[in-house]
Amino acid sequence: MDNEPKIPGGYILVSRKLIESEIFDKPPMYVKVWLFLLSQAQYDNYKNLKRGQLFTSISEIQEACSWYVGYRKETPSKSEIYRIIDWLRKRGEREATGTTNEKMIETTKATHGMVVEVLNYGLYQDPKNYERNADRNDEKTTKVERTKQNRNNINKNVKNVKNDKKEIKTSCSNSDEPNGEVKFGEETRPYKAALYLRNKIEEGPVKQPLPEPTPEELEKWSAEMDRLNRLGPVGANKSDDFGYSWEEISKLIDWCQQDNFWQQNILSAPKFRKQIQKLESRMKENGEVEIEEYNNEMKMTPYQQEQLDAIQ
C-alpha cells in the first residue's frame, strides 16, 4: 500500500448530505461552481488568506466552469455566475428535513476580484466530524421503516405545501416588497436592454452604486424597459401607441451615454424612461439623423456588440 503512487493535488471532503440539500435541486452549474470554490479554498492559513478562503473573480469562475460540446467551448455567462454566487451567499444549503437555511459563502470585494470564504469549512473538511459507515447503515434501516409508516401522508403534505405557497403569494400580492419571483429572465429583451444600459453607465464618468448584473437585481430596471417598449413614456397608455422599438431603445441608450450632459444624468432605467422624449428631441436637435436611420458607428467591444445585437 505504501508503494502505491499518491494522487497529486490533495483532496476535499464532500458530505453525502449534498444530494439531500437544496443546491442539488438547482441547475447543474450551481454544484459545479460550489465544487470549484470548495476545491480552491485554502486548507491552511496562507499569506493573507485564512483557512477556508480563496481569492477569485467572476471571469476565473467562468473559465473554470466552462465545458466542451465536441470541439466547441461553452462558457457560462457573467450574469449566470453572479446569480449563483448571490444564491450561495444569501440562501445557501438547506437541510432536506429541517427548516434551517444556512448560507454557504461570504464574499468581500478586492482589487481585481473578490475573497470568498467557504463557511463551516473546518467542520466539513475534518474527517473526525463524520459518522462511521456502520452508523450510517443502521440509520438507513431506521429510515426505511419510518418511510413505510409515513408513505400515506405524502400526498397530504404536498397538498398542504401547495396551499401554503398559495397563501403566501396571495398575502404578498399587494406588497411593494419583491416576492422572489423573476419575471424578466436572462433571455428576455427587457432584461437585455436593462443590462445594456447598466453596463454603459458603469463605463461612464459617474461612479455610483449599480445593481448587480443579474435578473433578480435588475428586475425593476427590466420592468421599466418593458413599459417603455409596450407603453412608451411615463403616463402613456397602451392605446396611445407611443411604445419604442427595441432598436430605438438601444440607439437612444448609446446616444445618451456618449453625450457629455446626459451621461451624467441618465443613471438608471426609470430616469431613462422619464427623459426619453427629451433624449429623442435633443438627439435630433444636435444634428443627429432620425432614429430609424441612426447607425451606431461608435467603437464597441465584441461583448458590447453582442449585447446590442441581443436587444435588437
TrEMBL record:
> Biased-composition ranges for Basic and acidic residues?
128-148
Q: Quote the biased-composition stretches of kind Low complexity, using this chain's numbering.
A: 150-160
- According to the record, the residues making up region (Disordered) are 128-186
Superkingdom assignment: Bacteria
Name under which the protein is recorded: Lin1244/Lin1753-like N-terminal domain-containing protein
* Organism field: Halarsenatibacter silvermanii
